[in-house]
Amino acid sequence: MAELLARAQQELGGPLLGTKFLYDARQMFAATREIERSVSEPGTTLYVGFQRAEKLDGEARIYRDLTRQGVEVIAFGTGAPAEVSRVRWVRLPENHEALANQWFLVTETPEPIAFVGFETSPPDRIGEGGATDPSRTWAGFVTDDPRLVGAIAGYLQGVSDREAPPALDDHDVARSTMLLVATDDGVDPAYAACRRAGLEVARREGAAVVLYDRSSESYLVDPYESGPWTSQNHGPAGKTLLTPNELVRLGRRYLADQVAEGRAQGLQVGAWLARGTGPAAMADACERLQVQRAILPGKLARPSLRDRVLGRTLADFQARVPAKITLVNDDSVLAQSDQIDLPGPPVPIRRPGSAEPPAMQPSRASATLPGQPPRMR
Fold it and tell me: Interior CA angle at 15 toward 10 and 21, to 5°?
């Protein structure tokens, strides 16, 4: 333990703050209960080390209640527990020295806090019996230093992604049920309507959802973090769906709240930050995540001059995005994109391997979505 903290202090660039050493199992047990009580907020991610699967079985009620409140619980240990609804179990090989095999509770929200207890018992007693058993000994610490808490959380997230890649449900979700739902940072009501409709579609069809944040689109700025203890090592690097905990660390609290909103409805929801801009960035996300259907705001059918110049019209999205597109109007009414009249000059779309498209008739000057009256000419 001392070696771990010394290395952390060196790599984090300064003395650790708010860190207390613990050696009494009763104090450690009290710390774990306090952390459990503090993480009832939806969208929170809690990393829990049980050492062995049967320990989770004994705590099933507590963690079942937390997941029902919208807390993401990622649990670690050897063996396989009995089913605990929505707890993500990371099965580990036996290793008495590895951090992931210890007793711990770590979370970054609502406040950063980490408890880690290293068992110093004889090898034949490690993980056996209750934590307060006199034959078991411990050396641990509790800290609220955000640098250290973030580093430990990042390390555990990396272990969980490597040992137990996240499923989008308690069972494998069929690829045809993956929905991409466009969203933003809360500025544009069109994306709020799109998000509401998308979550309703997911609820009705039993689909998994990736909330695709278009507010992160940029030609120059990468929305993912970089530097020590972040994407270059353990943090999110744009390869998998983001959890609320990771989104908070990336400064995307609004998106963490949106993911939590969907999960509170019992849906399987993750988030993706757009890398790049327009149709190309969305196409990349669809290919990586094997999205079959994209739900987008109807305003794409009425592009501004800027969007037309930059190639961000509905026709451009149709030509690039390898998924069926459904549009949503401001009243959250759905329409298939091929039922929408596109403004401006006709743009024939030819997909690979298809025949030449038939000649197109001149389109109307404005688009009409369900629930909206036709525009006067």
Answer: 105
Phi/psi for 337 (5° steps) reads -65, -30
Between CA 376 and CA 68 the distance in angstroms is 50
pTM of the model: 0.53
Query: What is residue 139's three-state secondary structure?
Result: strand
Token couple for 330: 């401001």
Instruction: Give the CATH number of the domain where residue 312 resides.
Output: 3.40.50.620
Same domain assignment for residues 292 and 248: yes
Q: Which residues pair with 330 in a beta bridge?
A: none
Give the 3-state secondary structure of 172-235: CCCHHHEEEEEECCCCCHHHHHHHHHHHHHHHHHCCEEEEEEHHHCCCCCCCCCCCCCCCCCCC
User: Buried b / exposed e across 52-64, counting CB within 10 Å, b at 16+?
Assistant: bbebbeebeebbe
User: Tens of pLDDT along 269-300?
Assistant: 999 999 889 999 999 999 988 899 999 999 99
Among candidates 348, 187, 170, 182, which has minimal Cα distance to 267? 170
Closest residue by Cα to residue 240 from 329, 157, 349, 134: 157
Q: Long-range contacts made by residues 64-68, C-beta under 8 angstroms, separation at least 24?
A: 66/36, 66/39, 66/40
Residue 327 binned pLDDT confidence (cut-offs 50, 70, 90): very high
| Nearest residue to 140 via CA among 122, 121, 123, 115 | 115
Residue 40 CB-half CA count within 13 A = 6
**275 is a domain residue:** yes
Domain hosting 216: range is 175-339
